[in-house]
Every structure is written in C-alpha cells, then in structure tokens.
Amino acid sequence: NSYQICYQYSCPTTDFFQLEINLISAQNDTIYTFNENYGYGQAGICAYINKEQVTSSIYRMSMTSGEFECQGDIEFLE
User: Fold this and answer.
1) What phi, psi does 11 have (nearest 5°)?
2) Rounded to whole angstroms, how far apart are CA atoms 75 and 78?
C-alpha cells in the first residue's frame, strides 16, 4: 500500500551542511521530507510513501544545501 522511491544525492561542497529534500505537489502539499544535519559527499536513500498521500501523478522533488538548490520532477505510476 505504498510507493517506494529511491534516490541519490551529493552535497555540493566539502564542508558539512544542513541538507533538506522535499517532495511537493502542484498544490504545494509536502508528502515527504528528509533532513540531514551533516550532509557530506554522496548518499543514497530509499523511502516509502503511503499511496493515500499521493493525489497526483507528478510531484516536484527539491533539495537545498547551504546556498545550493536543485529540483526535478517525479512521476508516480500505478
């Protein structure tokens, strides 16, 4: 009864940084958040999203770390 999302990220500097990753709908509802206080280097994460939370097929995933920010889209398929 859930979707599994797996992703990799890399912190953009050699210093430790606060890292935040969010999965947000077009209606600006956040269905997933990941916070890391000591982000450094590359990491891989798998998370489970309850199907009841997913009300649209496309969501925006955003990552911020220090002054760095990036984003991309995720599509949920049945």
Assistant:
1) -70, 140
2) 10
